[in-house]
Amino acid sequence: MIYLEKIKACPICKSKKINSLFNLKSIPLADYFSKKKNKTKKDKLLPINPQICENCSHVFLKHFVNQNYNYKNNFSYKTQVTKGLKAHFANEIKKIILENKIKKGSFCLDIGSNDGTILSILKKNKMKFVGIEPSISIAKYANKKGLKTINSFFNEKSSKEIVQKFEKPHLVISTYTFANIKNIAEFLKTVKNLISSNGIFVIETGYHPKQMENKMFDYFYHEHFSYFSLRSIKYLLNNFGFKILKVKITEPKSGSLLIVSKKCEFDKSKISQTEKKILTFERRRGVYKKNFYLNFMKKINFYKKKLHEKLDEISKNGKKIVGYGASHSSTLLVHQFDIRKYLDFIVDDNEIKHNT
Fold this sequence. Notes:
This protein starts with a strand and ends in a 9-residue tail after the last strand. The protein contains eleven helices and 17 strands. Helices cover 35% and strands 21% of the residues.
């Protein structure tokens, strides 16, 4: 049975002053469908209820799904399938190496390294590297390409093994994994203990204020436990001995936040103009208040109504309606917008998803 834990305190500041924002439709765990026509435990509908902390304004789900079910045996996503993502990573990592004067041959760690896309970029930039990836099949795929990948979750045990087998990394990268971690404070503590003195820590994660501005609601699903603002990430990094060197909003995932930080004692030196600008944007948009999210859902429900009107019109004309792409977010889209009744089938070129 899928392990579903109810969260009673903010994963960042541990405050128990939490407000529910809105309830999305319950959905099956993405990529965990049964191939049988009759429903099984694998098809159980699980709740998606985002909530916000009154103290630090962090947004996270009310329930947490054991990540073994998301990653170890059932994970099918490969970084390389997302159009433009490899070029984006290549461009940004090259800048980070140059701007922070990271020497060739420096040891780098990619947390949640997936198919080795970032590892291949580090290799091209003449770095020593290792990746850590919990998916058995994806880690095996990366290793077959000659991109050294440890098949494990990142935790205190695996971090000690990395240091024993290799060395302390000077550059640690975490792209699109930060939102998936339950105990984010423990994660950052482990990174701090692992990384070398004055090491560089890079985070890129979905940026929900920009995603919501783009009317993107289907980033909310069980794999994504946390939804970060710059304010909440800054709070975390400062509390665990990292200073933000550079931050910017990037294009992937309909809006992401890229942060370059450095391991050092927190100081109150001036923050960059970009950091000020993003924090001002969040405050003015009301990102820390409940009304921001209620207004967002009103817009989503409006588009749901408009879509149904269009699909009704197409159906009445006797035409077939086919879904294109069985992504994780497609699961939420189909359920939240109640469009299953309209769809004849869904197509996807990923063979793992066929007949599910």
